[in-house]
Design goal:
Blueprint (H helix, E strand, L loop, with lengths): L3 H8 L13 H12 L11 E5 L2 H15 L9 E8 L5 H18 L3 E5 L2 H4 L3 H10 L5 E10 L21
Antiparallel strand pairs: 1-2, 2-4, 3-4
Helix pairs in contact: 2-4, 3-6
């Protein structure tokens, strides 16, 4: 009998086509809470999770993406979990990455689709981006390591686990 946590991890896939159905704030907070329990270097817990559930701010972020990248990097998702940490801290990438992974697995367990979005740190460097970053309450000295978009796949979307390399694991 396969462990259900391991099964959830193996079945998790990224979704890039979302329906108009929004994830409830309660579920978004449950997923963020799972991120809060990720390991952190020296248990300093230096990262922050910003739950962007407001239609106003989701649309502002979408508009910023379209203006700067000529595409919606959120693929129509209505909820974004932005994970940040101090720009100059040696553990920021590691700590934030662990948080993101916990949230991806938690969302998958709740049958909520996700995708890792990397563009926000770059988008927040522009004049409009800096303004939005400040309005969201993200500290000036923090970088966005990644974001977890949440939603439900658009009808007809097929999400399938991709083949993994045969020589991925090395035994020494």
């Amino acid at each position: 009998m396969e462990n259900r946590v391991i099964k959830t991890i193996k079945e998790r896939v990224s979704c890039r086509t979302y329906s108009d159905k929004k994830v409830s704030l309660k579920k978004a907070l449950e997923i963020a809470e799972a991120g809060k329990f990720a390991p952190s270097g020296k248990n300093r817990q230096i990262a922050n999770i910003f739950v962007v559930n407001s239609k106003k701010y989701v649309e502002r972020l979408r508009k910023l993406s379209v203006e700067q990248l000529n595409r919606d990097c959120m693929y129509g998702a209505k909820t974004i979990l932005i994970v940040t940490g101090p720009r100059e801290d040696a553990f920021t990438f590691q700590d934030c990455s662990c948080i993101l992974e916990n949230m991806f697995v938690a969302a998958s367990a709740l049958k909520i689709a996700t995708c890792w979005i990397n563009q926000f740190d770059e988008l927040f460097q522009s004049k409009d981006g800096l303004k939005i970053k400040k309005q969201l309450g993200i500290p000036e000295d923090h970088r966005v390591v990644g974001s977890c978009i949440l939603g439900y796949p658009k009808e007809g979307t097929v999400l399938a686990v991709k083949e993994r390399k045969a020589d991925f694991i090395k035994i020494i």
